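Researcher: I'm preparing a figure for a lab meeting and need a structural model of a single chain. I don't have an experimental structure, so a prediction will have to do for now. The sequence is pasted below. Please return the structure as tokens so I can convert it later.
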Amino acid sequence: MRINKFLAEQGIASRRGSDTLVSDGRVKINGRVAVAGDNVEPSDVVELDGKILSHKVKYEYYLLNKPKGYVCTVSDEKDRKTVMQLLPQGAGRVYPVGRLDYETEGLLILTNDGDLAYRLTAPQNEIPKTYLVRIEGSVTASDLNRLRAGVEIEKGVITKKCRINVIETDKNYTKLHVAITEGKNREIRKMFEVIGKHIDFLKRIKIGELTLSGLDRGKVRKLSPEEVYYLQNL
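Model: Understood. Here is the structure written out token by token.
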């Protein structure tokens, strides 16, 4: 397998992060400094910063109900709390699959399974992620249809078609379910900015049909084998 995939499966970093490790010259294969695109065989000796890496991988899968006020990184240069601090003691070296921004709550998967992470985040796979959105005031049917068809959130960046349903409304707010199949930075917030609406609450509630059922805010649990199988076959 490719060196970046090997490192990702070890839980060292994402594939992109692994490419950076390789380009920085920190990885060796059989004593030779690795280069991008190198393949790793079971008999190869792979080193990272002089430490030999095992070819045996134990995958771990966690489901977290992320609260507001945490960032989805391993560490933070602003010294903010990270989702890694919510993992149970003894958890392996896992990484967030995609990101929820600092103010966004909800379903987050953490794993060292690079293939699954790629499957769930690659835009071409069109894995639906459903969010509970609350906006100030009301919204017109015309604006909702604009969002469903795709809008330009940045110059030259147009969102894909999405599903939006209003689930509750009164004179002060509107609650909606929004299902998207990509993960652009702050995508849903920017979508509603296009129609002049401010989101005051945003929570991811589903990936595919996987939900947060029974998991309190800030709590984490391991995924069941059935849930892992489901995600691997989405």
